[in-house]
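Subject: Sanity check before I submit

Could someone independently write out the structure tokens for this chain? I want to compare against mine line by line before I put it in a report. The sequence has 189 residues.
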Amino acid sequence: MAEAALQQLALDRLHVLPTGMAWHKTRTLSPAEHRVAMCRLAFGDLPGVVIDEREIHRAGPSYTADTLAELRGEYPQAELFLVLGADQLLAFKTWVRWQEVVDLATLAVANRPAHIGADALMAPPEETDLSQVDLPFRRLVMPLQAVSATAVRARLAQSAGAPADGLDVLVPPSVASYISQHHLYQTPT
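---
Independent answer below. Compare away.
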């Protein structure tokens, strides 16, 4: 998605922001230092990418509106984009201060398959229908991946971090190795 955004939006800079205290997550997140390290491994070689740690250093919950307001102050003349997946676009109006987000940035959306998971892998992916979304957005064109981040974490845990069953397309080997070395996503025995 990062590569598609850099190319299709002609970005000068892409800020990758490991989340701080995610108000909307019910699961416990990996420690911030691991999330930052994995971002550096996954995105560090892409030209124009900045691993931006501001959200993990912010006290209290992290809200996209706050981050975009800070970025607007730093880049007052820039056109800001918020890159997200179709699943988040469909839930966008549940975000805290979503109207401010739309005022500050153009939504750039990578579509997701309408169905994900084990059953979805058996059939060609069908795009999520975004025709009824009443928000302005730009579509990023990229291949559909019929697997969720939750499923990727589960499969990495089962394989002790080694990319298995085609996960090397979704998880760079350096990130999979880091996950294995630090025993991330593994269920305690």
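---
OP: Matches mine. For the report I'm noting this point. The longest strand covers residues 81-85.
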